[in-house]
Structures are given as structure tokens and as C-alpha cells.
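Worked example 3 (structure in, sequence out).
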């Protein structure tokens, strides 16, 4: 009986290669080399299956996009060997806090003002290069530093990269890699009389002990303003203030976004789970979009950016929790 079981197992194992598409072998090798992937034998089997299924799904979507059924394309990135559940457990870190609304100033809609049709704050050097939160739900920290970097540049003329790790380690009202809220981080920076520079307090992507150093402060914050929750107010704020912190709802299609305007009616906005930074807006092919900086590295999206639908009934909830710091 033991011999029968043994040879049966050999038969099953020998069938494993047939589960893979041999034509994808060189692409799988290139994927691992490009993103520095290394697996045990059992783990590689699991990751290859996930990756191949994602390839087929992406190819089908992109064929439909080429025929005009979608306004965006999807593509492979360094997360393409993860399931949606695995990705969301570590990367989605927006958590709305319990700060009293009276702490924040509130945006007052502007009247009799002409705002431009297109804005891109990168052209004004208000935006630091794309960063990578890695396997840590610290998106809230990157959204916070992004908007403060822009406001600091606007006030002083200097673009200074600020420390997300300072926020992950020291904002006790948030939960570090477990998630957080931008308003809470702004309040911390105000109470703390500043935030350290990226150079002095580099990112580790883990929860660590707080070692903020007042001698290394790169920017300060005197308060913050909550905007919205409508897209008209958000557009005014982006046009007249600078980059704005926002929270959005994501889904598996967003995670695999590669280019075009991300227009997905299933992205409703009732379950905000990710924090990003709006750095501009515009119109392309007759379709309005928000220009959004993400924190998933340059292999994701348009070199780390995404164009998201604008004036589509607040798709993905992009205007629901917008804010920016005062400096």
C-alpha cells in the first residue's frame, strides 16, 4: 500500500509542470529577475499559478480596452504574484480617526474665481519623486508628507523630502504599518513642532521606536483644512492651494492599473481604504481626470501615478476625505 501511495504522489507531482503555460516561462523568469523575487520550491508553484491567472485576466481586459470597452489598461507590476487578499492585508492603510471636527479648519468654496482647466504641480517642483511604502500599511504617512512637502515648497521655495518613518514610529494615535489618518498626522506635526527630513530619518517600512530629533526638522505645520466632500471644492483646492491628501476606495483592477484614465463604476467610494495625493487634474480625450501620486513604487501605474476619473459622481470616494496642512 505504501508503494502505491508513493507512486501516486510521484504522478501528481509530475503533472505540476503541465499546469503552467510553457510560453510564459521566459516571462516568469524575467518577472523574478526584474523584481528580485526568490521562492522556495513550494512557494514558487503557488506564486506562478497566481501570476499566470493574473496574466490571462490582464490580457483579456486590455483586449477589451483596445476595443474601447475600458478607458484604462492594466499591467504586471511587482505585486502580480500576490492574491488580492494578500495585497490588501499589508498595503491598504487608510483608517479614519476620531479627532474632533472642531480641530480642523473647513474649506470655504471660492466665488468669482477662474481656475485653470489643467493643473500639474510637478511642473512647479511641488512634488518629490515617487516613494514606496513596501509591505506596510503606511499610505497615510506618504499622503501626509506629500501635501506638507508641497505647502513647505510653496512657502519657502525649497522642496524637502519629509520622513514617513517619523510618522509611522511617532504618531501614537495612528497604528503605524497597521494604518492611520492624515489629519491625525497633521495634528501630530503641529503638536510636535515639526517633522524630520527623509535623509535624517529614512524609511524602513516597519513599526519601530520613535527617535524624532528636533535638530533635523524639515517642515512644520500650524493646522490643517478639511476640503469637500464634493469634487468642485476639491478642484478649487488643488488649483489654488497645491497637492491635496485624499482617501480612496480601491479594488483588484486599481491594483493592476497601468495607464489611461481609471474609470470603474464598481469603485463606489463607501469603503475608503487607501491614502494618496492629488497633484493635479486635466482632461484627456474628453474625459476629466485627477492626477494622483501613489506610494507603491515606480513599477506601478504611470511610473507611480494614476489618472482617476473626475466628475463621475465622486468615483472611488476621492473627494470624501480630502485635507491639506497649513504652514
Amino acid at each position: 500500500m505504501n508503494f502505491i501511495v508513493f507512486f501516486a504522489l510521484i504522478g501528481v507531482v509530475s503533472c505540476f509542470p503541465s499546469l503552467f503555460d510553457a510560453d510564459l516561462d521566459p516571462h516568469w523568469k524575467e518577472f523574478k529577475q526584474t523584481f528580485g523575487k526568490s521562492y522556495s520550491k513550494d512557494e514558487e508553484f503557488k506564486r506562478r499559478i497566481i501570476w499566470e491567472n493574473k496574466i490571462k485576466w490582464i490580457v483579456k481586459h486590455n483586449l477589451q480596452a483596445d476595443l474601447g470597452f475600458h478607458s484604462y489598461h492594466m499591467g504586471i507590476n511587482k505585486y502580480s504574484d500576490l492574491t488580492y487578499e494578500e495585497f490588501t492585508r499589508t498595503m491598504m492603510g487608510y483608517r479614519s480617526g476620531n479627532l474632533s471636527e472642531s480641530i480642523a479648519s473647513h474649506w470655504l468654496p471660492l466665488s468669482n474665481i477662474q481656475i485653470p482647466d489643467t493643473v500639474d504641480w510637478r511642473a512647479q517642483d511641488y512634488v518629490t519623486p515617487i516613494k514606496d511604502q513596501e509591505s506596510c500599511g503606511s499610505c497615510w504617512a506618504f499622503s501626509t508628507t506629500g501635501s506638507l512637502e508641497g505647502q513647505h515648497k510653496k512657502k519657502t521655495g525649497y522642496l524637502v523630502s519629509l520622513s514617513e518613518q517619523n510618522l509611522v514610529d511617532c504618531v501614537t494615535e495612528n497604528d503605524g504599518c497597521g494604518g492611520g489618518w492624515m489629519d491625525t498626522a497633521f495634528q501630530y506635526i503641529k503638536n510636535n513642532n515639526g517633522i524630520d527630513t527623509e535623509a535624517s530619518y529614512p524609511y524602513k517600512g516597519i513599526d519601530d521606536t520613535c527617535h524624532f530629533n528636533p535638530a533635523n526638522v524639515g517642515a512644520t505645520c500650524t493646522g490643517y483644512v478639511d476640503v469637500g466632500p464634493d469634487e468642485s471644492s476639491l478642484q478649487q483646492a488643488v488649483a489654488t492651494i497645491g497637492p491635496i491628501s485624499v482617501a480612496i476606495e480601491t479594488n483588484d483592477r486599481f491594483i493592476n492599473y497601468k495607464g489611461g484614465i481609471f474609470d470603474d463604476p464598481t469603485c463606489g467610494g463607501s469603503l475608503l481604504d487607501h491614502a494618496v495625493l492629488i497633484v493635479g487634474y486635466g482632461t484627456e480625450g474628453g474625459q476629466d481626470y485627477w492626477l494622483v501620486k501613489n506610494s507603491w513604487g515606480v513599477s506601478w501605474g504611470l511610473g507611480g501615478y494614476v489618472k482617476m476619473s473626475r466628475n463621475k459622481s465622486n468615483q472611488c470616494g476621492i473627494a470624501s476625505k480630502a485635507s491639506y496642512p497649513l504652514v
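Notes: The longest strand covers residues 274-284. The two ends are 77 Å apart (CA to CA).
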